[in-house]
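dumping this here before i forget
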Amino acid sequence: MRLYHFRNTENGLRSIKEKRLKISRITELNDPFELLGVDMSDKNERKRFKTMKENLSKTNGLLCFSKNWQNPVQWAHYADNHKGICMGFDVPDDLMIKIDYLKERLPYPDKYDEKFILKVLSSKFDHWDYEEEFRVYISLDKNEEEHGLYFSKFSDQLKLKRIIVGCESDISRREIEELIDMFDYKIEYFKARPGYKKFEIVRNQNDKLWT
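structure:
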């Protein structure tokens, strides 16, 4: 499936140049309810879940993607107010976990097992549903570590196929072309613009406006 990852200019261009994506740690995500989307009324269970979240963050991370590159809110939040870029990757379906968006927190289960943990890992409050998120969970010890940060290298399971430059970006066409020359396969690239009929970001077909 084709999935999209938004970045600001500096980090986005660095990711393409280094052919890798930074892996997010669970405790670093922007939603404080990550892995805590369960009824936490019970003090003991609340403590148990917080401990589990901290422990998982030490050994595992995730790559976050969206199914949709055209949502202007995504560009505003994750691509520096449309000044950054969006990278499209082909990722095998069996690696992806689709996020379920819920109105209410999950009840605590009768059986605390792997299936339930996966359910919690893939559940978020429904106000996040504009992200249309998919995730890939990763073991940190199988990836590159650099100054305490972890990175997943581009590969057949994380294959860069498209680069979209934000409508407010000053990234030049030449910068992108120099980067994709480092790859041994074709990568599609184009500049985005606001749509004329809908609240969406679309491809700018007039390439003459992008120097």
